[in-house]
Amino acid sequence: MLALTLTLTGCGSDDNAKADEWAKSVCDKMQPEVEKIRSASASITEASQGGKPAAEVQQADSAAFQEISDAYSSLATIVNDAGDPPVDNGAQLRQDAVGELNSISESYAGLKTSVDELNPDDVSAFSDGLKDIAGQLSTLGQSGDQALSELQSGDLRTAMLKQEGCQSSPAPSGSGSENQEDADAGKDADADAEGDEDTDGADDAADADADDA
After folding, report:
1. What is the pLDDT of residues 67-114, one digit of tens each?
2. Assign residue 16 a region: left if phi > 0, alpha if psi is -120 to 50, beta otherwise?
3. Number of domains in the chain
4. pLDDT tens across 177-203, in order?
5. How far apart are CA 60 and CA 52, in angstroms?
6. Residue 9 lies in a domain
7. Which of 8, 69, 116, 193 has its CA 20 to 30 A from that of 34?
8. Rounded to 10 degrees, what is the CA torsion of 194, 56, 137, 152?
9. Is 4 domain-assigned?
10. Contacts for 77-82 with beta carbons within 8 Å, 24 or more apart?
11. Distance, CA of 76 to CA of 209 (rounded, Å)
């Protein structure tokens, strides 16, 4: 998924100076965006640990999805502004990569909207919602890998792999396992709260539903 970017960063080269120059212009600007994606991924993982309240998990995931969406949009701009790579069918390669990166950005913006609309007070529904989001993330990652696969094989590969900015991969953000942990974290946090003190009838019902889910 976010291995997507590295699909692009793993793109190759045709051993000539023009290809090296193009690769450098892309990779130097790409690395800060890749770091943003990795940082957002780490925040999702952190939110899923320690039995944090559902509302806190929601806030962390929402911010991370926005950060990733913005980063992918920036990656699309970087590739587009670099112009056509100096290889056969370079214009089409650039067009395809930019289109997919923008599509991924829009998808993460959609996930932010989805997580924002969840009700953290309804533990069972919140957990189910995060599971649905995890499924969407899995599909998103697969589609991204496929869309940029042509850039991995071809004349740009060697040139881009020479560049330091294209040698590190962003950690997959919001993987299915991480979001499942988010869902469990939300349930665990409410279960802990129930053990510490009595809640009203609505909260008790929500906790019971979460435990049954």
Report:
1. 999 998 998 999 899 999 888 888 988 898 899 889 989 999 999 999
2. beta
3. 1
4. 455 555 554 555 444 434 444 434 334
5. 11
6. no
7. 116
8. -140
9. no
10. 78/26, 78/29, 78/30, 78/33, 79/8, 79/26, 82/22, 82/25, 82/26
11. 43
CA distance 200 to 203: 5
Pair of tokens at residue 41: 């991924």
pLDDT at residue 143, rounded to an integer: 62
Residue 211 has pLDDT above 50, yes or no: no
Cα atoms in the 13 Å half-sphere on the side-chain side of 78? 24
- 83 within domain boundaries: yes
pLDDT digits (tens, 9 = 90+) for 7-34: 554 544 334 788 889 888 888 898 898 8
Cβ contact 48:189 at 8 Å: no
Q: Mean pLDDT, the chain, as a whole number? A: 74
Query: Six-digit token pair at 138?
Result: 């899995």
Give Dmax (Cα) for the chain.
Answer: 71
Nearest to 78 by CA among 39, 105, 44: 105
Domain that holds residue 143: 19-166
